[in-house]
Amino acid sequence: MTEGLNVLSDEPDWEVVGATGTSTFNELAPELFERIAEHSDNSTLRALRLTCRDFATKVLRTYGQAHFTSRSLLLSDLDSIRRATNTAEHFVFGCRLRQLVVVVDDVVAQPGCTACQSVSTMSNRTAELTRLFRFFSARSIALQLELVDHKARASEGVRYTPPKCTICQTQGESSTHCIGWDAPWIQILSAVREAGAKLSRMAVTTHEWMLQLSKESILGPSRGLFLDALQNIRALDIRVAALRYGSQDEQCARDFLNMVSGAKTLVTFKVRIAQFTNSNQGVLEYLIFETTMPGIRHFSLTEGTWLSLSELQSFTQRNPNLQKLDLCSTDLGYDNFSNELLDEFECLDQSEVPSLVRRFIDLPGEYNDLWSFEVFDKFERTSVLL
Questions:
Q1: What is the pLDDT, as a whole number, of residue 100?
Q2: Given this model, what pLDDT does residue 40 score?
Q3: Range of the domain at 55
Q4: 230-267: buried (b, 16+ CB within 10 Å) or exposed (e) per residue?
Q5: Which of 167, 237, 274, 378 is in the most buried spot, having the most CB atoms within 10 Å?
């Protein structure tokens, strides 16, 4: 490597005596140095840093922030988790890691290989996740965690093919793609607690899998895991199953919202609620707008629901720290909403309310600002242009 670098030098009499000159590295383009860093082993990287400390440190820091702040892993694949762990323990780039994107596949504990009767790898995955999270705990790094769908298996009708047994190499039988209700949530949060790590952001953006708010899951045995995670979370983005009126679902919804409103560090709360086919509004989205969440500055409710404007008005008055409200898929009803806040804007048809409100509802500022003359003048001009 030193001979190749010497060719790039403008000094023909320059000699290599046990080390590479710093001037040679300074003449290299940063892109070339990044390629060296990407394909070199740990000992070579260490030598480069010692040889040209200032330049190498600057480039490695920039390169690490650009390429090593986030890593993806497949939750059902033990080797994928181990590769993420190897990145976290890298002596140069591991300290840059801040975000993990977890691809949620079929993570239900398998009964084991029928050929050799091997045990499930669920406990092995949890142990490897714990090892991974310990690196964040040791460095006092608040982790950003996001759960996403497996793109290749997210479409309807795709069948899941279990991997080969690691012991006897027997191929597992295909089965209908099915994800356990709380298996991903419990497995990850258990590892986070065991490792003593802290979460600054938890996002569950999956469509194939959602959180089940029930006494048998997050509000029961998994309650402590969720409360521990909320201790340091600043942003919570989740998808939950719909809850019905007139059953224990209502108490479950209240318990869940009490846990969220008690999170002292929570600033951003985004929730997507799976809707009933025969109902416009479930109990959870109704109770959300009766809840006081003192620290929330940004609230988002998507995937469709129905809300009256008076409920929206009460919610914003109950949460004075709210700066941004996103109701991008919410149908808003006029009901007994105060006409004074609409000023002189004339609503000709109740069906017009959802579209015009949705257009401006994500503007920052207090609620009254959303109904100023400027907003509706802008809407009227936009409507004419359209």
A1: 86
A2: 61
A3: 1-67
A4: bebbbbbbbbbbbbeeeeebbebbbbbbeebbebeebb
A5: 237
* Alpha carbons within 13 A on the beta-carbon side of 50: 8
264 and 176 in one domain?
yes
Residue 345, pLDDT score? 38
Encoded tokens for 167: 């012991």
DSSP letters, 206-250, are -SS--B--STTTTTTTTHHHHHHHTTT-SEEEEEE----SSSHHH
Instruction: Say yes or no: 191 and 320 in one domain.
Output: yes
For residue 63, give the 3-state DSSP assignment. helix
Which position has the token pair 């991997």?
Answer: 163
Regions in the chain scoring below 70 on pLDDT: 1-67, 91-93, 105-122, 151-183, 208, 216-218, 245-247, 275-281, 303-305, 328-386
The span from the CA of 314 to the CA of 248, in Å, is 26
Structure confidence at residue 1 (pLDDT): 42
Q: Which two tokens stand for residue 93?
A: 């780039």
DSSP at 272: E
**The total number of structural domains that make up the chain:** 2
Place of tokens 């009964």: 111
Task: Say what the pLDDT of residue 60 is.
Answer: 62
Neighbours of 44 (CB within 10 A): 13
Give the bridge partners for 325, in sequence order.
Answer: 299
Pair 138, 4 in one domain: no
Backbone angles phi, psi at 122, to 5 degrees: -60, -45
Give the three-class secondary structure for 161.
coil
H/E run at residue 133: helix 122-138
User: Which strand (E) or helix (H) includes residue 330?
Assistant: strand 330-333
